[in-house]
Amino acid sequence: MSRLSSKEILALGASDVVSAVHAGRLSVTAIAVAYLAQIEAHEADVLAWKYLDAEQVLADAHALDKAGPRGPLAGVTIGVKDVIDTADMPTGYGSAAYEGFRPACDAPCVALSRADSALVLGKTVSTEFAMASPGKTRNPYNPTHTPGGSSSGSCAAVSAGMALMAFGTQTAGSIIRPAAYCGVVGYKPSFGLLDAAEIKVLSHQLDTLGIITRNVTDAAWCAAALSGRSRLVIDDIPPSPTIGLLVPSRMDQAGPEAMLALDQAASRISAVGGVVVTLGLPDWFDSLHELHASIMGWEVTRALAHERLKLWDHLTPVTCEFLTEKAKVSVSDYEAACEAIVECRKAFAVLMDGVDVLMTLPAPGTAPQGLTATGAPVFNSPWTVLHAPCVTVPAMISANGLPVGVQLVGRIGDDARLLHVGAFVERAIAFAGGPFA
User: Which of 159, 201, 291, 373 has a Cα-to-Cα distance from 25 of 20 to 30 A?
Assistant: First the structure.
């Protein structure tokens, strides 16, 4: 059936894989073999997978071929973050306290992926409960550096070519930041676009399910299939979008390579017909940090009540410290933040007047050296608490050999425009990196 080499299979984008499988030019088994070989070649260095059974992957691929895969994700290989429930694989939520736990059912995102004929490869490493305590994963560009978190394994697996797509979650900066650190596309949709049921809850007002891919077009394709919103598919790229360049608050935490990436991206966008306008930072913006902290602090303390009250001795010191700090938020602070954020979202809509998307920093710089921390979400949490859709686009390789990205931010609910402009920005930047290129 397939005469493509493993290298050629690995180079295919999501829509190309689906088209080839639908047309009978490529079997899901051949896809499985190619990706399993890539995993065998690089997993020992990257350590992106918490659980992966090669025999199970091949059996699932054979079953899809026998049934005749016809869904919009046919043959797309997927990694599932370990905080997302899977019935046929352990779901440990990144914690030794849940080692070997088997949920009763798949989370909706997993069930829908399987129904769409995707090939679920395994579970990717998460920090404990998708918070701050790192797992084993290394950055594919340099194993002495963090991949970021909490979607550590998902971003590293896609970066290393071990999955075409992976699920991530973001409550503060857990998709956008590690995607920037690993040189991949991280898409955090508008809050609620993708169903976050059967995922370990931290904050009902903040938890967002998202997607990590190699390029924006793949992210849009997969999100369209899973959300039922065909308008997300990138069928044309806008010729001259208007992009608002926004330098956020707390820039004392940003390194020079982050600003260089932003400046170079703006120049390349302008060179190919995009319009870049510099926006002033509104007075209310910095308050978003405190609003996020109050909402997350109150809600995570209650969402993890069982873990705090019954499993405390089984949690890592980092998680215990995190929860202790979050528990300091009072109910009055929480309720005040819930009221204030409503007005900030209205003000955000005004900020977006006259531009298609914003462009800003996704992270303070390149991935920090060491594996004991995952980096700061300082340039992510404001957009998360606003419920705005965001996408990381890889921008350059820094002098230390690590990738740097830019973050695009769209209007709440206007994910289609964000993704289409993201494809324009991606083409303008023409990032040519890759840890094993």
Answer: 159
Query: Catalytic residue at 81?
Result: yes
In the predicted model, is pLDDT for residue 205 greater than 90?
yes
- Classified as helix, coil or strand, 251 is helix
Quick one: pLDDT band at residue 161, thresholds 50, 70, 90?
Answer: very high
Catalytic, out of 81, 123, 200, 326: 81
Element (H, E) at 29: helix 28-46
Question: For residue range 58-75, what is the model confidence (pLDDT) as tens digits?
Answer: 999 999 999 998 999 999
Q: Give mean pLDDT, residues 99-105.
A: 97
Q: By the 8 A CB rule, do 268 and 429 touch?
A: yes
Question: What span, in angstroms and rounded, lies between the C-alpha atoms of 24 and 65?
Answer: 10
Please tell me the distance from the alpha carbon of residue 205 to that of residue 155, in angstroms, as a whole number. Answer: 24
Pairing of strands 275-278, 242-245: parallel
* Other Cβ atoms closer than 10 A to 4: 17
- Each residue of 108-118: pLDDT tens digit? 999 999 999 99
Position 244 scores a pLDDT of 98
DSSP states of 128-166: GGGSSS--S--BTTBTTB---SSSHHHHHHHHTTS-SEE
Separation of alpha carbons 84 and 225, rounded Å: 18
For the chain, residues classed under CATH 3.90.1300.10 are 6-284+339-429
CATH 3.40.630.30 is the classification of domain 6-284+339-429: no
Of the candidates 150, 151, 154, 203, the residue annotated as catalytic is 150
**Which tokens is 247 given?**
């330098």
pLDDT given for residue 436 in this prediction: 78
150 is catalytic: yes
Marked catalytic residue, from 174, 190, 294, 381:
174
Whether 188 sits among the annotated catalytic residues: the reply is no
**pLDDT for the residue numbered 22:** 97
Given the structure tokens 């992957």, which residue do they identify?
A: 57
Q: Which of 146, 377, 126 has the alpha carbon at shortest distance from 248?
A: 377
| Residue type (1 letter), 36 | L
Predicted TM-score of the model (pTM): 0.98
Strand partners, 404: 396
